[in-house]
């Protein structure tokens, strides 16, 4: 399958590119700067440009069977509208190219969902705190979802993680309801990318899906939270172990470099 990835230099987008190529898909990555493309592969084509520029996006999606929107606003600027602007441009590009069967897969989030009635005080307080800090990001995601839902021709899948963690692949869980069944279950970037590649291989028409690395709907809660803590601990440990490496890199100016994929 031919896939176009927007946000291919980001934490999740990079993993989508890597796993999609490993699954023998052909990938076109739309990136700001070709020199920042993390991989080299015969199955990877780079288009330099901006996800908000219609002509750039048309160039990137013209051969695509599916487009993955893994855009994000690094630094979480309060004025962010990255995901909705990228989604709008992709929809315009597909319409103007008459590519109405091209699938669109978008990462948003389920953090903005109001806790259901009867939720614990802890959950409601956490929700209020999240809204206070991330209201603009949730609004951006909600608008991107609205844009997709408003176009009845487009076959989309919206993946809605709660919290993204940089731990390695652990085995994601897809939930067919819009949000994970238990609150605050994170997913790693690689698991989210694996979920996206799974959706490419097993199309799910016009759906929002909650995703997490943790738990099954019927797992006992202590097992779920044991895994949450194990994942968080793995991340803390990695950060502590890798901090000196990052420090040396920043001093000597070493970059990430490109990795050769098959
Ligand atoms: N962090 C969390 O806990 C969390 C939870 C739920 C959902 N999410 C959502 O998950 C999504 C993916 O997050 P992530 O951390 O993987 O993303 P990320 O690392 O921040 O990467 C964002 C990517 O988007 C690209 N980008 C942004 N604007 C662009 C533009 N105009 N044209 C071309 N490329 C552009 C960036 O490229 P440059 O670097 O070149 O700008 C980068 O490759 C985001 O929408 C985020 O809000 C995050």
From TrEMBL:
InterPro entries: NAD(P)-bd_dom (IPR016040), NAD(P)-bd_dom_sf (IPR036291). Pfam families: NAD_binding_10 (PF13460). Residues 7-203 form the NAD(P)-binding domain. Gene3D superfamilies: NAD(P)-binding Rossmann-like Domain (3.40.50.720). This is NAD(P)-binding domain-containing protein. It comes from Rhizophlyctis rosea.
């Amino acid at each position: 399958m031919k896939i176009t990835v927007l946000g291919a230099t980001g934490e999740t987008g990079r993993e989508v590119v890597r796993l999609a190529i490993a699954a023998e898909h052909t990938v076109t990555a739309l990136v700001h700067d070709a020199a920042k493309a993390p991989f080299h592969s015969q199955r990877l084509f780079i288009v330099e440009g901006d996800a908000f520029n219609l002509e750039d996006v048309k160039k990137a999606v013209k051969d695509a069977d599916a487009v993955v929107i893994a855009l994000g606003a690094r630094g979480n600027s309060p004025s962010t509208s990255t995901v909705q602007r990228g989604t709008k441009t992709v929809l315009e590009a597909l319409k103007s190219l008459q590519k109405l069967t091209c699938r669109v897969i978008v990462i948003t989030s389920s953090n903005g969902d109001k806790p259901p009635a009867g939720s614990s005080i802890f959950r409601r307080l956490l929700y209020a705190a999240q809204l206070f800090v991330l209201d603009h990001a949730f609004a951006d995601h909600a608008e991107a979802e609205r844009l997709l839902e408003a176009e009845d021709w487009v076959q989309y899948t919206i993946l809605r993680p709660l919290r993204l963690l940089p731990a390695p692949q652990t085995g994601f869980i897809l939930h067919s309801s819009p949000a994970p069944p238990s609150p605050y279950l994170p997913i790693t970037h690689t698991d989210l990318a694996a979920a996206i590649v799974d959706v490419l291989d097993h199309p799910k028409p016009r759906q929002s899906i909650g995703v997490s690395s943790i738990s099954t709907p019927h797992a006992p809660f202590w097992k779920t939270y044991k895994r949450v803590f194990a994942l968080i601990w793995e991340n803390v440990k990695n950060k502590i172990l890798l901090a000196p490496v990052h420090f040396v890199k920043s001093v000597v100016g070493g970059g990430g470099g490109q990795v050769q994929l098959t």
